[in-house]
Specification:
Distance between the termini: 84 Å
CATH architecture of the largest domain: 3-Layer(aba) Sandwich
Low-confidence stretches: 210-221
CATH topology of the largest domain: Rossmann fold
Number of strands: 13
Oligomer: single chain
Number of helices: 11
Structural class: alpha/beta
Mean pLDDT: 84
């Protein structure tokens, strides 16, 4: 393939409006390292330094640089992020300026509607298109059933079932990774993300065999932006054991718009949608207009999103308050026993 133009990299009017009229040049970040980032332009691939932490940059970012030093980070068109693993409240950037989020699952025991919904929230909050890619369709008795289950989750998504080892099947993904487009792959370990990457890019990144429990093994260990044979770009990501949402209330509202709209008709503005009179959500459950399992997943994500969106200071204050309450209860119990 010939060297791509800036437009084929995904450069557009959104970024051009932010560009400085000086000697600095725009680059797109392909990998984020501890002390630097790898970046690419139509003319070169280069290592760039950043005066701030590289943790503030994401694969797919557009930056300007001069003499190997980043001078500008452009406002993103989309940003995929999650709350970092562990007990603190940091955000972890997954990828930036993604056109389509490819949610990879497989037509076996890995298929999980609740997990797919989480990724749908991630896509909606980032303002990129969701695409559910169901692999290992050749091993399923009825792959179309998996497609239908996924598509019922949201009118916003498309879903396809493929055999990722079949070159003809993989071409069905080309419409989402044409020149100027960026497709990011997310999903559990062992579902076939690396197989898809190899087929779309012509690379030969090693894949791991499946385990007997269908859970697979990690192959990708870091994020990278690579060019596809269709002319667009692919960001492969490591398998996620857990996707902790943060600051994703808009995404939850978008994916569960049917339930969110019902809440506006509840009699009480602070309705908990449990036993309150005049609850439109409970009425819809009773009539079968909405599914009880979906309702519970909505409530769980709403509660989790509120917790995970706490700042570190808020989390510490809440834990401190809980600790005081526990100490108070224990002190009262000791006093009662002594009395």
């Amino acid at each position: 393939m010939t060297n791509p133009t800036y437009a084929e990299f995904g450069w557009n009017a959104h970024f051009a409006r932010q560009s400085n009229a000086d000697d600095t040049r725009p680059f797109r970040v392909t990998e984020v390292h501890r002390d630097s980032v790898s970046a690419i332009s139509p003319d070169e691939t280069i290592l760039l330094r950043h005066s701030d932490s590289t943790g503030t940059l994401a694969v797919g970012d557009w930056v300007q640089a001069i003499d190997g030093q980043i001078t500008t980070v452009f406002d993103r068109q989309s940003l995929l992020k999650r709350r970092a693993p562990g007990t603190d409240a940091r955000e972890q950037l997954i990828a930036a300026n993604v056109t389509t989020l490819g949610i990879v699952s497989s037509c076996n025991s890995d298929f999980n509607l609740s997990r797919i919904e989480r990724y749908l929230v991630l896509a909606a909050d980032a303002d990129c298109l969701p695409l559910v890619i169901l692999t290992k369709a050749d091993r399923a008795e009825d792959p179309d059933d998996y497609v239908k289950q996924a598509e019922r989750l949201s009118p916003l998504l498309s879903a396809i079932a493929i055999d990722a080892t079949d070159p003809l099947e993989i071409k069905r993904l080309h419409p989402w990774c044409r020149a100027g487009d960026t497709l990011a792959l997310v999903g559990s370990s062992g579902v076939g993300k690396t197989t898809i990457r190899n087929a779309l890019t012509g690379e030969e990144v090693a894949t791991q065999g499946n385990r007997n429990d269908d859970k697979g093994r990690h192959t990708t260990t870091s994020r990278a932006l690579v060019r596809t044979t269709a002319g667009g770009w692919l960001i492969d990501t490591p398998g996620m054991r857990a996707l902790r949402l943060a600051d994703a209330s808009d995404g939850v509202a978008t994916v569960f718009a049917d339930i969110e709209d019902l809440t506006l008709s509840c009699r009480f503005s602070d309705c908990a949608h449990d036993t309150e009179p005049g609850c439109a959500v409970q009425a819809a459950l009773a009539s079968g207009a909405i599914d009880n399992a979906r309702m519970k997943r909505w409530q769980k994500l709403k509660a989790e999103e509120r917790r995970n969106s706490e700042t570190l200071a808020q989390a510490r204050a809440r834990n401190k308050g809980f600790g005081k309450m526990v100490k108070g209860v224990m002190a009262k119990k000791r006093q009662d026993r002594g009395g």
